[in-house]
Amino acid sequence: MATEELVLKITGLKTNFYTYEGVVLALDGVELFLRRGDTMGLVGETGCGKSVTARSILRLVEPPGKIEEGEIIFFDSDKESGEITPVDLLQLHPEEMLHVRGKKISIVFQDPATFPNPVFRIGTQIAESVMLHQDLSREVVEMKIGELRSSITHDTPEERRSQIEEKIRHYEQQLVEPPEPDDKDKKKAAHIIATEMLKLVKMPSPSSVMMQYPHELSGGMRQRALIAMALVSNPNILICDEATTALDVTVQAQVLNLLNELKKEIGTSIIIITHDMGVVAETCNWVSVMYAGTTVESCATVDLFANPIHPYTAGLLTAVPKLHDTRERFPQIRGTVPNLITPPSGCRFHPRCDYCTEICKKEKPELKEHRPGHWVACHNPLS
């Protein structure tokens, strides 16, 4: 795939967790790519490594976890010049990574009741993200110009009007090279931007929500606030790690529709981590399937549902109940998820696979393009 189409490319990613019971081989050579403007679903059973992959991308794996090897290439694009610069996130200094995390790549975590800080107001938390990642010099000057213009009314005396217009011209000249603002003005500008972002995510009464604490909001409102916080720096990539799992079905649909609307407005590429194939079918145009710390299949969503190639993906789709299905017992994938301290040799799915041959037990399959636009890691693909 052409580099200019990609915003993220992961190759050979291995992440281990060193526990008292042994080394958990959580990610074993994960291969993923995300194209610009795509919404990609990252799916698989609980414990397959979806969230560890997300944390590895952002370098948020904490001890006893450790990223052992691989490449996470982020194709950073300058939004003014359009110039693309490939950056290996695993090679960045921790200080450099701070300028990527939250600014270029943002994440919305699973439980909206946990991640907003309970002791700070919503507005303070979003504004803090703005101040951390944005140069507000120009915004402060524009804010002052706006305040001056709004102070002019039809009752304003002519002399006073002339003074205000003179100040406006003075600030307009500063727009060429805005001066460094003081902290008070930066906070004020950041709160204005935060309020506008809450409006963008369709938060009811955004000005009131700015003054509220997380416990005063419903689950859906908290999730919208987290999305606003993640998007306020206009990131290239937004990762949603089971971001709708804790929400009821109606609110879940609203949040997912909101994400796709925002993607069109802001131009952000999105990774939605989920185990819900319905969410993938409704929201994503590309999907990657993971099993036991490996990528087994990657293709367009329509292609995956119409013609899965990997036996695991086929089993996963067959196990999804359908409204018209009257069977008393649904098909299931035999066996259980392997222990990742002592994973199976070769293909990690081979003990549960009906198409297993000797090579599957000995040799790990590589992710290859089986047919145009459809990648699979399998020695015996279904078609």
Describe this structure in words.
The protein is α/β, with parallel strands linked by helices and 383 residues long. It folds into 2 domains: 1-104 and 236-347 and 362-383, Rossmann fold (3-Layer(aba) Sandwich), CATH 3.40.50.300; 137-180. The chain is 36% helix and 22% strand. It contains 13 helices and 12 strands. The protein has helices at 50-57, 94-98, 122-133, 137-150, 158-174, 183-200, 206-210, 219-231, 249-266, 277-283, 301-306, 311-318, 358-362, and strands at residues 6-18, 23-35, 39-43, 65-77, 84-88, 105-108, 237-241, 269-273, 286-291, 294-300, 368-371, 374-376. An 8-stranded mixed β-sheet has the order 6-7-8-3-9-10-12-11, with helices on both faces. A hairpin with a 2-residue loop joins strand 9 and strand 10 (294-300). Helix 4 runs antiparallel to helix 5 (158-174), helix 4 (137-150) packs across helix 6 and helix 6 (183-200) packs across helix 8. The model has no long low-confidence stretch (mean pLDDT 88).
